[in-house]
Amino acid sequence: MGTLARPFLDESRCADGQECPSYGFSNRAWCDATCRQRVEQKQSWGTSMIIWTYAIYLAVSVLITVYVGHTLHRNGRPFLIDCLQGNERVADAVNHLLLAGYYLMNIAFVVLMLRTRSPVASGFDAINVLSTKVGIVCLTLGSMHFFNLFVLTSVKESRRSGV
Fold first, then answer.
1. Does residue 52 surpass a pLDDT of 80?
2. Are 112 and 136 in contact (CB under 8 A)?
3. What SS3 class is residue 31?
């Protein structure tokens, strides 16, 4: 009596749980190779998706940062002139220094926030990650702006009161 070939635990399934296209042909090596290709394609798609998510995040965040910085630089000049009692030269210098610091802080923050631990396997996941990250960047930009306004208003008040 010959020995029978040992059956697979579930002959109709590949190692990744997908339906085995070779079921019924007893070609397990072909089935496993097909399974490996499917897994590699999924990994490739996931890698591609995260790279596109990172690229979109960087582009949107940098554009928002540059637009807000330019707007604050242009519209903040009169406020600084008023805070510095009409001294336009000093106001312009402070305005340029604030802009440079703003760009350095925000671009560094955007880059530090780049990494994600959330899996990005679909467009839906990408939108979730992007909205969270861009939202955090916008909240940070707004917080920094209000902090700067608070400091400059305090400087203005202390100069007016002669302290």
1. yes
2. no
3. helix
Alpha carbon distance 120, 50 (integer Å): 6
From residue 29, alpha-carbon distances to 19, 63, 135 in Å are 15, 51, 48
Side chain identity at 40, as an amino acid letter? E
Residue 163 has pLDDT above 70, yes or no: no
d(CA 42, CA 135): 29
Write out pLDDT tens, residues 38-51.
655 555 555 678 88
Integer Cα distance of 148 and 92 in angstroms: 16
Cα 1 to chain centroid distance, Å, stands at: 65
Main-chain dihedrals φ then ψ at residue 116, nearest 5 degrees: -130, 145
DSSP-assigned letter for residue 87: -
* DSSP structural state of residue 19: B
